[in-house]
Structures are given as structure tokens and as C-alpha cells.
Specification:
The structure is a homohexamer.
Chain A (H helix, E strand, L loop, with lengths): L19 E6 L14 H9 L5 E2 L4 E2 L5 E6 L7 H17 L3 E6 L5 H11 L4 E5 L19 H9 L4 E4 L6 H8 L8 H8 L3 E7 L21 H10 L4 E8 L10 H18 L1
Helix pairs in contact in A: 1-8, 2-3, 3-4, 7-8
Chain lengths: 278, 278, 278, 278, 278, 278
């Protein structure tokens, strides 16, 4: 008997035996354009069964790694504070057990409560931010916490100089000016390696960094992005960093009529897992 | 030169000359199943141009009526209190000018702040509730205010005995027990007329009262509902009531691939306008 | 070897052996709302292979009838006069051979050139018009010949008193007033039979007579229409009339995502064939 | 933590405590028109979470019943014999434990191996067959076992006189002649009750018995079928029969763009469960 | 109150204050393959609100520029001469006021009446033609004026030697031979600059120059085209030319299920505006 | 009169006059993920009419070549042995007449019976295998013959050293180890030319070699593949080889909502024909 699978492909290890744990955060409450990233965690898991567990690029097999999947954080829609609290609790519990985490979003705002916890747990936390949008507004329609402000919120926690951006191609003039202050946009691997060293690193991957040709199924598609190969090579280059957590956000499955965007997201997750444990 | 139209078809009268004003409330923050009713107000307006302004059933023409359309209330996503406040302000302003209102939702929760205002403005307010779902839960995933509790919230304001339900076919045993106390489900026109008399009436139309065959484009489709003709006849039977306000909620345009659900919604709005001013 | 089929299911008789010939008129040049009925003739043929040739209602099998399918009239898009000329030539050729015809539209305007020819070929031609829309405007956006005026154009040829309407539920007040003059809307079978007698009859079926629940794939969907069974019973009631021609128009396959509208159209065609030769 | 659910809503009892067990048979190998019913079992389970467990019609709650869900039978595609064998094994195991079964298809052919087993387990087995198509061909494209022959195959096992058909509206003249011999098409409840008495009954529900307006997402849509209410009333009328097994087949989720067909299928399953245990 | 926007994002200046005016020409009457570019002008405006007004590539903000949007030219469908006349009137009016124009098509044929006017208004007009298809046929299905002949029509007005083609990858042997005569296909920027000098330039962008991966939503998709970045770089290279007018044609929104094609089109428009006024 | 076309565009030569014959093999019986490649042969033919017969890259026109199209092999679904037998008969008949063949799949398994025949007809047959997946499993869910094993099956016929793979990016570790033995993955043209020499060559093109951005409409999309241009250049490089047969497999039209995947498939077929006869 085969039943519907609860976990990302190959990530079926018990919590106690796992080095890394996947959890979903199906929140899309501040999405201003096209909602529905709430459906992404389960859809990514489902789509993962169209892939192999083996990656020829990494020469690694997910089944050989110690990864579990604890399902989704559950919360009521429409109440941002409770959502933050639940995500923080989940992250804190895993962090206390010394587990690495990979969170399946949800919208980009879910990165904030995770970083709040990890910033307390690790010294000198660095963030690698892959995205089409700067997300560096001070406020958005009068709100301080939003998918459009999340990187600004995080920069107040860990310092903007500790954030390295890749793929940003959309924002206001003010956002681009803010980013320009630190020269941390699309820097080369050698420079990145030097800056990061052995410090703990968190990867946040807003899937709209990809071009709309390869990932139309997202809340705010922005033409002119990375090809799948370009993102894969970028992720591959992060092997060897001390990556303590990651998230993959902003898949909107209801706009993914062919199912291809979900498969792309699942392969990004698979490659991120290999990078984290490779 | 023809430009994109701002208003529901034929509803282009200035505010001061209007007896009735349309406004949109594009909020879907507590939707638990399929979001996107935020897109409904603009989509309903757009789809209305596929209809005639003349209704042969009512022998009335929208263009002959004094109706304006003031656009949508604007609010940040993810902050329920501010949404309530903005909808209340808008309703209060129109109410002070003695205008009737028709609100294009949005999810069903938007009815609550409207009733809060109208309940203060009118004595003995009655509610006619058309819906597939009871929406009579006390709380939903721990929250008191939600699309699944909204009728319960309203019953605390105006008294459950003043609510008349049509079309309810889904709920928990507790919700059906609650409703059964007052014998107000699917009552005949003669009984309804007697109970309502000349009291002010508010109509709330959750479009999922319709069968999923005619309206698949909604957040929580429930098979076994009204045909379009059945709903039209019900609405037609309300002519002559003292209707002071109405709303049409829960169209989810992103699941309406053929565009037919949006046209259905627009025709329900047209018929509701005729009922209110006929 | 099986190849793509050229003909409506079971309608593979040579022209000389056929009592009735099918042809397509893939014109949608005046469609004002949603174009694409140009794709209908081929799509209806394709969808017909999902049906049986046998109809239990009629106890007739299409394969037992003498019907051929001569394909589509070909014309350049954007030149209405040439389209009319080509459709007239085709109809005239078949009429001279004493063949009955069934035309697969295309938009409703294609009925006009057919009637022009048949009105010359037959005395006392009667028209049975099944439609959601009156199509009785004098002009439409300044044009005399349009899908929205076609019944008015035809009434000038054969006299409005010879047109019997079924299903009309949308139009301007003027159009409904025009129709009301002759009391020919939705009349009972006995009255229709008396009026028609043995006169030659033409059936024009705008598929939007059907409710949008059963036929969303059309240019101008209008909620509140016939169920499939209601239309089937109406068509069945026309057996025994002297039907010399028919058309089935306004399927818009690109809005028929599930394919169901095309199958509905094909079954309407099958039933129309049985009615014509039954 | 909430995880992807493995079971139909509310059907989470352990096998040993269950009176009835659900299993899926995701086979669509002989589908000749539109494949993909293989995806139905999991999709029906997923869609069931958009429904309540409580049915107001039955005044029963699925959660109060003793029902489990053992997932899907797994088999290689393209090898009919092995598929039959696996379904027979599964059915036999459950039958030996005296469990009632409800199978989620898959195409209609999956009913045959189930009946093979149950016909051995029960005397005087009766079949109630709900379907748009007769499925009574002797062979189909040269094959004896196919979705188009399955009722003929079953009639050889249990006798055609023990099969009661509802909703058949498509078939060849030969198939309708076969059925006509036994006068078992759409018979009234009183006659059905008399014929069945206390004998064990199996219900097979091909979802295309429903009209294409309410269920476009199926392999071979056939216009002119039952409304959801008509099917619900038919199912409701079977309460009190000694129903030992049932199946719900031929949902094709990939043609169900709005998701409504899957919800319809799930509600049919919920109502069937209530009928079986009511 | 926010209402449905009438204008392309940020292009809200009054006519008298504008250097450049946007207008729509929603004509698709000669489309031979997939119609629906009539819906493009309004869809491009709507999709533009998913973009920022600021372009980091140009370091320009649309809101800082003097651009207005006067809506769509209105005309009856199916009458090519009237369409031409209306587009010419609109272009002539704007030209007399010394405004630059950007027209949102519609099909490619709408370029012809615009060029007819501008060729009278400017000496030595040059055309830069971006397209997948040569559009250089003499006639198409017997018609001289068609989307498939429009460049040939224009070459008779301004001389083929003044047309510079980019991206052409589909045509007949005859069309490619015609183009080959002037060596004006995909020429380098330096050569183009030399040929154009200070002469007035018109840009016509058939969006199908883009690869079908990035722009599936068009009438005649042709695989093997430009990536979004390649087209963006080409457009960027035209800064400094004396560009007096432009058009962006052939988006077919009804085939753009994910909405991504419309966003691509809107970003092409934004970049074209920056090129014209940069 | 124009009728639905039976043949790939321009491939209308009689069998006796043809050097190359196209046939379809609409089999998808072992598809494990998303079925529906059965619809591909007819859809590719239909989509081909959106292309020109002339290829500027090859400077060849399909209409000038001697190519016929004999339609599809017909077989019952669900019986793999009969499918193999019918494909073998068809291939053998054409081979005896010394015709080259191009087969439109269908799933990848259809290559096996073709190679069985051609391996008997030609000495030293070489295979060029373009694919995302290795298809080199020994068995798949217990079956020896499957879309996932087909290259392994073929390697047992012609020797793995005679198979040259391009584009493989997904498989198990075992499959990649198998392939690695012969160093035949993505080898350069010069090396390929040397190995092949004048030997007879068969091309098998699994369309999922293409990136999911350009071909989402396939059974098992795998991100990170070839662009259309890269595949076109690879195919172009095979001119001059002694190509005796080819197939193009695994288009799944039901997941190709925009129609672009089918057009891509048709252009791959057109280019393959030019390569074979160039």
C-alpha cells in the first residue's frame, strides 16, 4: 500500500536522527498582488516525487542524508502576530536541538521571525538574499512588517552590511540607493567567501529571482531574471559555507497551470539541501 | 476615446445625485481555503460590460436609476483591525448622507463592520443571509472574527432572531442546531414578509449559495446549491422590502477560468440593484 | 491506419449520396466581446468523436443517415463582404442540388448570407431562433451588419412575423419591445405547429441559449439559460417540421478549458441532424 | 504541526476498529478518450478537506463512524493482469476481515476484479450501476476487458438480471437493446427495493452520470445527466440496503481546472459512506 | 478611495503637459491564427501595476517623465477602413500637437495607418522593426492589408531601405529574399547609428520577437526567439535616437494563463518609454 | 473548401513518391507521472500549421521535399504486446520499401519496437539519444519494458557503446554510473562524427531534453535543460549523417495550456526532417 507522502522526497528520517529538518510556513497574509503561497509547502512536497533523489551535479543522494520533514506550522489566517509567534516557536525548538532548518514558505515575510530566533542563537549571522525585489521599503501601505519590507526589517536586526543580495532587479530608487551603500549586490564568489569566512550563514531564496519564463507561478513575477542553470550554479557555489538555515519562498501554485513552477521549486529545494549538507 | 471603465455598468451618477452607492472591499485576509476574493470588485465591474443595463425580468434599466460607484476602500493586507476601521468609515460616511449602499466583497467577514455601522443607524435592522455555509461558528482556528464566524458575530449585534437564512447546506452539527432554534432557514415569502414588515433590511449574498456548476469561481465551493434562476427568483421576491444595504461576496476570480463566474456575479449585482430600487 | 478525421462523426457519405451536407463557416470578425468562434467548426468535429453515433432518445443512428461533411468555407479574415459572398456561394451550390444544409459557425452573423440564399430558394421561409440575446438592434457601434443586429437584418428579408424566438433573456428595452409586437417569444409547440404548418423552416441555434453552467465556452455568456435537457426537448419537438437548413453558432473553444462545451455543441449538432432527418 | 493528510476527511480509524475501509485504485490503463483518473484517489482525499464531516441531509457525522483509509493499491502502469491481481488481493484481504469497502478509482474497469472477489464472498450479489454510459460492449477495439465492456464482463459473473442501471444515456443500439431485455434501467425505488430485499448490494458510481455542467472533470463527459441534487437523492434512497461495497470512479482531475469536480466527487464519497453505514 | 486605473502606471499627466502620449488600438480583425490582441491595451495597463515605476537599468522613474495616457481608440469590429481612419485621426491629432506617441496594439496591422500619418509629418522617417515574422508578403489569402503584409505595405510608403529588422526568424523563402536585398537584418549598433543619424525613428515591437518560453501569450508563437534580457539590451541601445513614435503589438492575453506575458509586455512598454525620453 | 488537415505541414506526398514517411504512435500506457502523450501526434500536426514550411536556417522548404504522412498506428489501450506488434509491423512495411521514417510519439517506450525492426534491417545501427532522463533502469516497478527502461532495453539490442546521449540530467546514481562506462554523454561533434562515420543512425528525441521554460507540456518536466536554440544547433549539426529513422516523443498536450509546447514540438519535427533529408 502506498499512501500520500507527508515529506519532501527522501526526507523521511526521524527528528532525532536528522541533521536538518524541513518545515512549512504556509502564510501569505500580506501578499499585495497575487496570494496563494500558502499552498506552496504541500505542493513542493508533492512535486518533489517527479524528481530523483540523486543529483548528478553534486553526486549526492538525498536518501543518504539525515533529513526529516516535520510538516507545516499551523496558524489562523489574518493574524500576523500569532503567525510570527508560531514560526518563532518552531524555529527555536529546532535550534535548541542543534538542527539546521529549511523552511518552505509562504510569503517572504516568514523569514523575519526565523531570523529573529537564529540571530539570538548565532553570533555574526550572515544572510544571502536571492530575490527579484529589494524588499527594502521602510513601510508598505502604512505597515512596517510586510513582504515588501522584510529585508529592511531584517537589516535592523543583523545589520545591513551582513546581507548579500543576488538577482535584485526591481525596487524604488530609494531601495536601490539603500543597497548601493554597502556594495553587496551580485558580488563575486571570491569576495563573498572572504566576507563570510566561517560565520554562520542563512540563505533566503525568493523564487522570483528566476526569470518569469521558468517560474511564472509566483506572486509578483518580474521579467529579466536568472535562468534555472544560473541559480543552480549560484547555489552550488555556496557549498562549504557554514549554512545553518534556509528558506524557499513565494511559489504561488495556483498560477502554475503546467505544474512546471512547482517542480522547479522542488529542484531548488533539493539543491539547497545538497548545498547545506554537502 | 474610450477608457477603462471605473464603475459598474450604468452606475456613473455623481455621489450627490445618487440614491445608492457601490463600493468595493477587496479584503480576503481570513480566507482559509482558496484566497483571491480581493480581486472580485474590479472583476465584477469589468464583467458587467458583457451584460445589458436593461433587465427584462424587472423591466428596469440601470441607466435610468440614480446609482454611483465610488471605487474600492483601500487598506494594507494582513491587518484586520485597520480593514474594519476603513470599511466602517466608508459605510458611516455614506449612511450619514442617507445613501443606500451595495458593497462588492471581498470575503464574507466584510459584512461585519458594515452591519456595525448600519445597526447604529437603523432601528430593528433585519438581515437576509444567502449562503451555502452557516458561518455560525463561535471561533475558527482560535479566532473570533473570521469568514467562518461572521454570522455568529453579527447575531451578537442584531440578535439571531432577526437573521433569515437561505441556501445553507454546509456546517457543523452545532451550527445547524443553532440555526434550528429560530426556524429561520429557507422560510416562505409570506412568512418572511410578515416578519420583516417595513423594517430596514440588509441583504448579504455569499455567491457560494449558487451550485458549483454555475459558480465554480469561489473560495469554498459546495455542491448541491441554487441554480441561477432559483437565486434570481428569490432576489426578485424581495422587491418592496425596505432594503437599506447589501453586499455580494466571495467571488474568487482566479478560479474562474472561463470568466462565467464573474458574469454571474455581475448579473447578481445588477438584479440586486433592481431589487433595492425597484 | 487511422488518420485525423475530416468529418463530423458518422457523416462520411459522398456529396452525391447525401440528403444533408455539413459545412463550416469559421468567421468571427464582428465579435465584440470574446472572439474565437472561428475555431468552432473543427473543434466540434473533433469533439464529436467522444459521442456515440446512436441516439437513444431518437432511436436513430447517424451512420444510418445520408449525411456528408464538405469541410469549411475558406476566406480572409477582416473582409466581411468576401465572407458573405463565399458563404452565399456555398449555400447556393448546395441548394441547387436540393441538399439540406447544416452550417457550423462561426459567429451569428453567418446566418444572414445563408438566409439570403434560402429565402430566394424557398417560399414562405420560417425561422426558429434559439438564443440568449435578441440580436435585434438596428445598428451596433455604427454598423448595420453585426452579430448584434443579425436577426434584425434577417427580419427585413423574411418578415419579423416569420421568426419564432426561444430563450431570449438579454437585450435592450427597444429590442424586447420589437419582439413583443409579434408575440413570437417562447410560444408553445401547438401554436408553433399551427403557424408553421408545412412551410420550409430554418433553425438557427446560438449556443448561448444554454445556461453558462453547461456552456461557458461562448463569446457572450448570459446566466439564467436553458439546461441541456430543456434545449434537447425543444429540438426534439421540432421533428416532423419541413426543416431545410440549420446552423449552430457561437461556440468559443478557447474559453472551454475542460472541453465540455465542445462536447455539448457536438451533441446539439447530432440531435439537430436527427431532428432534420427524423 | 499539521501534515499532509493521508486519509479521506474524518476516516482516520485504525483498520481493526473500522467497519468500512477506503482504498484507492489509481489505474487508467484502458481509458480511450482522456486519461488521468489515476490521479483521482489522492485528489478526492485532498478535496475532502474543503467539506464538513457533518451531513445535514443524513444528520450524520463521518467522524462518528468507524471508517479507515488504507491508501492506494500500488501497481506498475501498462500491465492489466497485475493490476487486477493486486486489486483482488486487497479486496480479498478486507473481505476476509468482514470489512465493507469503498474503492476510489481509477477507471471503471477496476470494478471487475472487486466484483470477482465479492461475488465469491457473498451469495446473490446485486449491483446498482450509476453511469452515463452502458459499458455493455462485448469487446472494445478488440479487447474483452476495458472501461467500455466492464458491465458486460460483470454481467457474465453475476447475471445481467442482477444489475440495476441508473442514468445511462449513451451507448450503441446493441447496448441499449441488451439493457432493454431486463427492464432494469432507472426503475423506481419501490420496485428496486422489492427486487433487492436483503441481498448484498454493491454500488458502482461512474461520476459521469452527473451532467457535464457539474462534473466536467471526467474522461468521457456526456451532456444531459443528473444534477448533483438528483444523484444525492438517488444515493439517499439506498439507505437501509445491505451495501457491502462501493466504488466511485472516473474523476479526471487534470480536466478539473476550477477544482469543483474534485469537490463534487468528494461529496459523493461522503454521501456514499453515510448511505452505507446509515 | 482607489479606483480602477485608467492609465499605464505613472503615466497620468494631462495631455497639455505631456511630451509623449499613450493610446490603445484594440484591433485584431485580420489575425489568422489566434485572435484576442484586442484585449491587450487594457491588460497591459492593468499588469503595469505589478511593476515599479523606477527602472534601475535606466536610472529613470516613469513618474518623473511627462507622459499621459488617453485611453483606447474605439471602433466597430469587422470594418478595416473605419479602423484605419480612426487610428489615423488619433495619430494626426497628437502629431499636430508635437507629441510623441506610443500605441498599444492590437495586431501588427495597426502600425500602417500610424506610419501613413507620421510619414507625412516627418522627413526621412526610419523604421526599426522587431519581430519574429517578416510580415513582408505581397498579399495574404488574397488581401493586400493584413498582419502578414504590413511591413510590405509600409515599405511602399517609406522605402524598404529605411527599415531595419531585428529578430526575424520565420517567413517564406520569398520574404527572406526580399529582406536580404538590403542587408538590414540584425545589423550592429554602430552600423545602425550611422545609417539613422539624427533622422526621426519609429519603433515597432511585435512581442513575438521574444522566445515562446517568455511570451507564450501571443497570436503566432515562434520558438527560438530573444530572451527578455536580449530584447531589453536592444531597446536600451536605441537611447539617443530621435524616436518620434513607437508601438508594442500582438500580446494575446487570453493565452497568457499565468499572467506573465502581460507583465512582460508592460515591462517592454516601460523600457520603451524610458528609451524614447531618456 | 479547406478541410482539417491529415498531415504534418507540407508532408502531403503519396507513399510511393516519398523518401520519408511520418507516422504516429499514440501510446502512453506506461507513463508513470502525467499521461497524455497519446494526443501528441495529432496535436503536433495541427500545431505545424502555425509554422512556415520554409526554414531560413537550413534554407530548405518542406514542400520541396518528398515526405508523406500516413497517419497513426491504431491499437487498443492497455495491451502493451499488441502495441509493440503494430508498431513493428508498420516500421517493417516502410523499411521494406526503403523509406526513412519519422515516428511521432507517444511515450518513449515506442522507440523499442522501431529499433527492433531497424536493427534487423541495418548493420551497425547507431542511436543518438536526446533526453533529460537516462531511461537506463533495469526494471521499473517490477517491469522490464517501460518508458524508464527503454534505453536499457535498446542497449541490449544494439550495444550500449553504440548509443550517444545528449542532455541527460536526471537519473539514479546507478544509471549515471552505467552511462559513464562508455563516455558517450554530450560528446563533441568531431568525436561523434568520427565514431559514427557512414553508419546508419537513428535519432530519438525525448522533448523533455528542453528546459521546462520552453516545454512545460511533457510528462516528466525536468528543470535545467536545453534552450530551443541549443537543441536546434545540435540537430543542425547532425546534417550529413546517414539518418535512417527518427522519433519525437513525450509531448503531453493537455499540460500545454498556451499551445506553445506543441508549436515547439512541431518546429523540432520540421528541423528533424530537414536534418534527415538535408
Amino acid at each position: 500500500m502506498k499512501t500520500i507522502s507527508n515529506c519532501f522526497i527522501g526526507c523521511d528520517k526521524p527528528v532525532e536522527n536528522s541533521d536538518l529538518l524541513i518545515f512549512g510556513a504556509p502564510y501569505d497574509g500580506t501578499s499585495s498582488f497575487r496570494p496563494g503561497s500558502r499552498f506552496a509547502p504541500d505542493k513542493i512536497r508533492e512535486a518533489s516525487y517527479g524528481l530523483e533523489t540523486y543529483s548528478p551535479d553534486y553526486n549526492m543522494d538525498i536518501e543518504d542524508l539525515s533529513i526529516g520533514d516535520i510538516g507545516n506550522v499551523e496558524f489562523p489566517f489574518g493574524v500576523k502576530d500569532k503567525v510570527f509567534e508560531k514560526i518563532k516557536n518552531c524555529t527555536a525548538n529546532l535550534s535548541k536541538m542543534n538542527k539546521k532548518t529549511l523552511c518552505l514558505g509562504g510569503e517572504h515575510l516568514i523569514t523575519f521571525p526565523i531570523i529573529e530566533v537564529l540571530n539570538g542563537a548565532y553570533d555574526n549571522l550572515k544572510l544571502i538574499h536571492m530575490d527579484a525585489h529589494a524588499d527594502m521599503r521602510d513601510t508598505y501601505i502604512g505597515e512596517k512588517f510586510s513582504h515588501a519590507t522584510v529585508l529592511n526589517n531584517i537589516s535592523e536586526l543583523i545589520g545591513q552590511e551582513n546581507i548579500y543580495h543576488y538577482g535584485i532587479r526591481s525596487g524604488t530608487r530609494e531601495e536601490f540607493n539603500k543597497i548601493a551603500k554597502y556594495n553587496n549586490l551580485n558580488i563575486k564568489h571570491s569576495e563573498l567567501s572572504e566576507k563570510i569566512g566561517d560565520d554562520p550563514v542563512y540563505l533566503t531564496i525568493d523564487l522570483d529571482i528566476l526569470d518569469t519564463s521558468i517560474l511564472p507561478g509566483t506572486g509578483t513575477p518580474e521579467p529579466g531574471g536568472f535562468s534555472f542553470k544560473e541559480l543552480s550554479e549560484l547555489l552550488f557555489s555556496f557549498r562549504g559555507f557554514n549554512i545553518v538555515g534556509a528558506d524557499v519562498v513565494e511559489l504561488a501554485p495556483d498560477y502554475d497551470f503546467t505544474g512546471a513552477s512547482s517542480i522547479v521549486a522542488a529542484k531548488v529545494v533539493r539543491n539547497t539541501l545538497c548545498t547545506m549538507l554537502g
